[in-house]
Specification:
324 residues, mainly beta, Tachylectin-2, Chain A, nine-stranded mixed β-sheet, five-stranded antiparallel β-sheet, 2 helices, 23 strands, 9% helix, 46% strand
């Protein structure tokens, strides 16, 4: 799918994979395998599988929900949930593989009584004059720990903040995607944004409709990145934590499906997405990893495509490359 640009890195892990094959590494337990299969049975038309292999594990504990952006100086900055900083932190890298933590928080939780006293799940894009961060926020409970966008007890909204240098962010007035008693949604969080070829901005996010407890992926469109119009129908139900990337004329959307699966959807217009592949993750020894959370996909300047996610119950962000 990515024109074989990842072949060189795959050679670096081929020996470890060979050892694993010889040693007969175990995969998911019987119960987990049955649950994975049961979830996939809900979409029988999806039969293809895309496989990613771990090549690195960031040495920073307790961070999650990565988001990457290319900086104007050619470096990369990853933003993440960071409870130790009471909000959103970041790290900088020259290759998209090794990150050094930046000083202080990029955005801290607002005081109690504010609509975003708990923040998280950032997404940053370049805009004229600087960078815009989209993030989810809730008025309660006010806690330093990030709350999953699928939590049925929380009412999330999507907010934004602006920075000229990609480090110092200031909250922008208003709410990007509203939720709650006066809005059509019960919750809206974990928003991801891409600018389409026609100049419009397209957001996908985790939504919860009124009267429902299961999440859905919903889309929204904007001309300025600030004022958004919701799609009339969800992109995919029983799914959450979406991220997407464009290659040529196709958008590739990755999302968590139900509890344990990750699914890939594709679109040529940015509006209508079709599920095409189940996505699987493996460690350096070719053992299957499960429970991928908050995936992010990014192509660096060398054309190498990385997928970042927390998997297998780990509290650290892993880096994956597509297996051929």
């Amino acid at each position: 799918m990515f024109d074989g640009k990842n072949r060189l890195l795959l050679l670096l892990i081929a020996f470890a994979a060979l050892l694993a094959a010889c040693q007969g590494q175990a995969g998911p337990t019987v119960d987990v395998a049955a649950r994975l299969a049961e979830e996939r049975a809900a979409l029988p038309e999806v039969t293809a599988v895309e496989k990613w292999q771990r090549v690195a594990l960031l040495p920073l504990p307790q961070i999650s929900a990565p988001s990457l952006v290319l900086l104007v100086d050619g470096n990369y900055r990853m933003f993440w949930n960071d409870p130790s900083l009471n909000g959103i932190g970041s790290g900088t890298s020259g290759d998209g593989l090794r990150f050094s933590p930046d000083d202080r928080a990029r955005l801290i939780n607002a005081p109690a009584g504010q609509p975003d006293c708990v923040t998280g799940y950032p997404w940053v894009i370049q805009v004229p004059g600087g960078y815009r961060m989209y993030y989810q926020g809730a008025a309660s409970p006010c806690t330093t720990q990030p709350i999953s966008p699928t939590d049925p007890q929380a009412t999330f909204r999507v907010f934004s903040a602006f920075s000229r240098d990609g480090l110092s962010f200031e909250r922008e007035p208003g709410i990007r995607i509203d939720a709650g008693e006066s809005a059509p949604l019960a919750s809206a969080g974990h928003g991801r944004v891409q600018q389409l070829d026609d100049g419009r901005y397209r957001m996908v996010f985790t939504a919860r409709y009124r009267g429902e407890t299961t999440p859905a992926i919903l889309g929204a469109t904007s001309l300025d990145g600030l004022n958004w119009t919701l799609d009339p129908q969800p992109i995919l139900r029983n799914a959450s934590s979406p991220t997407f990337i464009q290659f040529e004329s196709t958008l590739y959307l990755y999302a968590v499906y139900q509890a344990d699966n990750v699914i890939l959807l594709q679109s040529t217009d940015g509006m209508t997405f079709t599920p095409t592949h189940w996505v699987e993750f493996y460690d350096e020894q070719a053992s299957r990893l499960i429970e991928a959370r908050a995936p992010e996909i990014f192509e660096n300047l060398d054309g190498i495509v990385y997928l970042y996610a927390s998997t297998g119950g780990a509290d650290r962000i892993a880096v994956f490359i597509l297996r051929e």
